[in-house]
Amino acid sequence: MCRLLAYRGDAIFLDELICRPKHSLVRQSLHADEAKAVTNGDGFGIGWYGEREQPAVYREVMPAWSDENLLSICASVRSRLFFAHVRAATGTGIARQNCHPYTSGRWLFMHNGQVGGYSQIRRALEARVPDYLFAERRGATDSELLFLLIIARLDLGASVADAVTQVLRETLAMMQVLHVSAPLRFAATLSDGETLHAFRWSSDKLAPTLYVHQPSAGGMLVASEPLEDGHEGWEMMAPGTMLSLSANGVESRALR
Length: 256
Description:
Elements: E1 3-13, H1 15-18, H2 25-30, E2 44-48, E3 56-60, H3 68-76, E4 78-86, E5 102-104, E6 107-115, H4 118-126, H5 131-134, H6 142-155, H7 160-177, E7 184-191, E8 196-202, E9 211-213, E10 220-223, E11 234-236, E12 241-246, E13 249-254
Helix pairs in contact: 6-7
């Protein structure tokens, strides 16, 4: 399983969360405590919102712990909303285009989890992506495919909650038709540059971990694992829930 981190709040330098903490995401790329794959060295990515509507992204295939450019960027870039992800590949190749986060217009997305039986269901899922969005597909991951399916529904006017729920339910139904017994697991974050949405859902009882934390400097942080020793001040999201973090506060709802 991959590890991820997302922040929304007052503008801070990226390294304050991605690099500096004792159990930072960079350290988790080498040694994660709450993942099946202890090492997440199959690439990484960061995405952040600056002065433009569309987010900037830096992705690379080398391990996060060995990329000096990552450290330099994180120490120099300040943002009010940013994502970071370290990857443990599950069935698709190690390539830059398979690294998270993914973008489409103003949207930014990253995922930790799996589509069970992805090789069996991939073609059927890809057929559901509209041509104008399929042209944006650069990699081969199930995560990017789920993202494009979500964007297609958002473009049709669905709310974020409805778009994600529809994609998860339709994907699960397709898996069942094809007699896929492996689960569909979805811990993810999605943003339009204003609101940060976080999701923790699974078709079984083993939803990937996702914690919420409010740093002392303000803002809100979502991460696969606490960035410090212990769990004080870190609250695990309940399975089957969605959080929306905006200027108006935090809203929680069930994913049905």
